[in-house]
Design goal:
By secondary structure, the protein is an alpha+beta fold. The protein is built from 20 helices and 13 strands. A hairpin with a 2-residue loop joins strand 7 and strand 8. Helix 2 crosses helix 15, helix 10 packs across helix 11 and helix 19 packs antiparallel against helix 20. The termini are far apart.
């Protein structure tokens, strides 16, 4: 059972701390092993990774330089610059989005590691606060012919730049460095591939799972989702039945069976599982009012309006587009669909936490996710420095920093199966559940004007959740307005 009692930070550190790790970075993502066969569909979680003992790691070389020591006791050390360091010199301009603090720390840690591996390259940091601003910034820099060398890309920002030919095809460099693309998650390769080209080297993934409050399930005599998934079936009907039983009380202390699902990047999963699509492959026509898409959204809205098992923005005081993340951490919702980016909030919780694969939908078992990658701008002045950074990010040492951040998940199957991986999981996290979700991940193909599309979607979905519009009326409005946006030039 992927389940454990919450530990204090000191207890957690003592349980997870391991001897120092040292891996000498080699070019082309050194240390990668052959990719395992993809998992077949299954709802039953495997034996928790928390039961495994931490891996014994090699000691650093005598002349190794300490690069990074993380919250789980991880140490990344390198004895000398990367083999291809002599090819990279000068300034490498890096555009990324993050807010100052924990959100940016992973980038700063990676930049520190890069500085040791490529000592003749200086990184110029170009930070913006969010995805939308990152897209605007890169478009403006391209228009001004003043481009960065490297761009932190993701599913929701990839399409506009691949479509306009702004990114460098990495396939020749991948081939030269003999990088095995089969080691990356299928959705990542699909996201950044167009024809024979590859326009981003995957470096992390937004893993998908349902996290649940075992105390609430036990108190309501409802079987834990892990037990239900193991016995089967684990699908929409069962999720609904359990959420209704877990909903109790009223007012500001009401307990809800399921956490709100608000973002288009999460609702898309339910549309896919109902057999629908958000828009056509050419991004010219919105399909959100198709019968299949309506069915997926109706399933979610029924939790709020029919079953009263999901809080609305009126009950949380939010705008309908966010601000309710802490309901689950606060013990007021029983189950939440999310990724590792919520782990910091769960460290403060006082209840037993478990995790399980997403329930299957009526037409598919596809899960949501987000594959992130390093993309090099076509007219970059320092493509060698940018490629070195991309490889470093996807290497074993880069993946250790990604995992230690507790904000994302490894991009590589071989790293997931490595001994080093075990040290990064909290006691209740289940490696096989993450793996299965990533093998099932769908690809969100972002339209050119993502911000405008999202604003329309968020507004209409909130009105449906509040009962002020039917799902059909809300999705008809989505289609009408989003069709106009899809036809706008970039």
């Amino acid at each position: 059972m992927a389940l454990a009692r919450h530990l204090s930070r000191r207890e957690l550190f003592n349980r997870l701390a391991v001897p120092m790790l040292a891996t000498a970075f080699v070019a082309a993502c050194g240390g990668q092993t052959a990719a395992p066969a993809a998992s077949g569909p299954s709802s039953a979680p495997a034996k928790p990774a928390a039961d495994a003992k931490p891996a014994e790691a090699a000691k650093p070389e005598a002349n190794a330089t300490l690069i990074y020591s993380g919250v789980t006791g991880t140490v990344v050390a390198v004895a000398k610059p990367a083999p291809d360091a002599a090819k990279a010199r000068g300034t490498m301009r890096y555009l990324y989005n993050a807010t100052p603090g924990p959100n940016e720390k992973v980038h700063l840690d990676l930049i520190d590691l890069y500085g040791k591996l490529y000592p003749d390259v200086t990184v110029e940091k170009i930070r913006v606060p969010d995805d939308a601003e990152g897209t605007r910034k890169l478009l403006a820099m391209i228009a001004a012919n003043d481009v960065p060398d490297l761009f932190w890309n993701r599913q929701r920002t990839a399409t506009p730049f691949i479509a306009r030919g702004a990114l460098l095809d990495l396939k020749p460099m991948v081939a030269a460095d003999k990088i095995d693309l089969n080691d990356f998650w299928p959705s990542a390769i699909k996201t950044y591939s167009r024809g024979e080209g590859l326009y981003g080297l995957p470096n992390s993934a937004s893993s998908n799972a349902y996290y649940f409050n075992a105390d609430l399930y036990n108190a309501s005599s409802v079987p834990l989702p892990t037990e239900t998934a193991k016995k089967g079936p684990w699908n929409w009907d069962v999720l609904t039945e359990q959420a209704i039983k877990l909903t109790k009380g009223d007012g500001p202390t009401k307990q809800f069976g399921i956490d709100p699902v608000l973002s288009i990047y999460s609702v898309d999963m339910f549309i896919w599982q109902a057999g629908g699509k958000l828009w056509d492959d050419d991004l010219k026509e919105c399909y959100l009012n198709s019968p299949e898409a309506v069915a997926g959204i109706q399933f979610l809205v029924d939790f709020a309006q029919k079953h009263k098992a999901m809080p609305t923005s009126a009950e949380t005081g939010s705008s309908g587009t966010g601000g309710v993340t802490d309901l689950f951490a606060g013990g007021r919702t029983a189950i939440k669909m999310a990724g590792r980016f919520v782990l910091d909030t769960l460290l403060k919780s006082s209840f037993q936490v478990g995790m399980v694969i997403a329930p299957e939908g009526p037409k598919a078992n596809t899960t949501r996710g987000d594959d992130l990658a390093a993309s090099i701008i076509k007219n970059a002045k320092n493509p060698e420095g940018a490629w070195g950074y991309a490889k470093m990010w996807s290497s074993d040492d880069g993946q250790k920093i990604i995992m230690d951040s507790r904000r994302s998940f490894t991009a590589r199957r071989s790293f997931l199966n490595s001994e080093a991986m075990k040290q990064f999981l909290l006691p209740w996290e289940d490696l096989e559940t993450y793996k299965l979700g990533l093998e099932r991940t769908g690809v969100y193909v972002a339209p050119n004007h993502t911000g405008e599309v999202n604003a329309i979607f968020d507004r209409e979905l909130n009105l449906a959740y509040l009962g002020e519009k039917s799902v059909k009326d809300a999705t008809d409005t989505m289609k009408k307005e989003i069709d106009v946006v899809l036809k706008k030039p970039l």
